[in-house]
Amino acid sequence: MPKLIEKDPLIEAESILSEQFYGKRLPAEPKPKPTHYKIVCISLYREDIDRLNELVAELKRRGHTKASKSALIRYALDTVDIGAMPKGY
């Protein structure tokens, strides 16, 4: 369907009112990307996700207010004994 009006006659007035109400907006400086961590994507079975969520909830219940899935996985990585892991796990 073709536009009846090619140019919105109120766009300029809206811009002026917006500047008057909110002030002139400067373009935002892009934030530097963090270098101390990376976001990764892994696959887990639903049962594993449920278990992970249960463990985080239990940690929070025990007073670990900042417990999270990431923190629990980092702890597991720090304490894992790969020598004890069965080959078909």
- What is the β-strand count? 0
The shape is elongated
- Give the oligomeric state of the chains in this entry, treating copies of one chain as homo and distinct chains as hetero: single chain
Beta-strand content: under 5%
Overall mean confidence score, pLDDT: 88
Along the chain, the helix and strand elements come as HHH
Helix-strand makeup class:
mainly alpha
Q: In angstroms, what is the radius of gyration?
A: 26 Å
Poorly predicted regions? none
Termini gap: 60 Å
Number of helical elements: 3
Largest sheet: none
The residue fraction in helices comes out at 40-55%
What does this structure look like?
Helices cover 44% and strands 0% of the residues. The chain has 89 residues and is mainly α. It is elongated, with a radius of gyration of 26 Å. The termini are far apart. The model has no long low-confidence stretch (mean pLDDT 88).
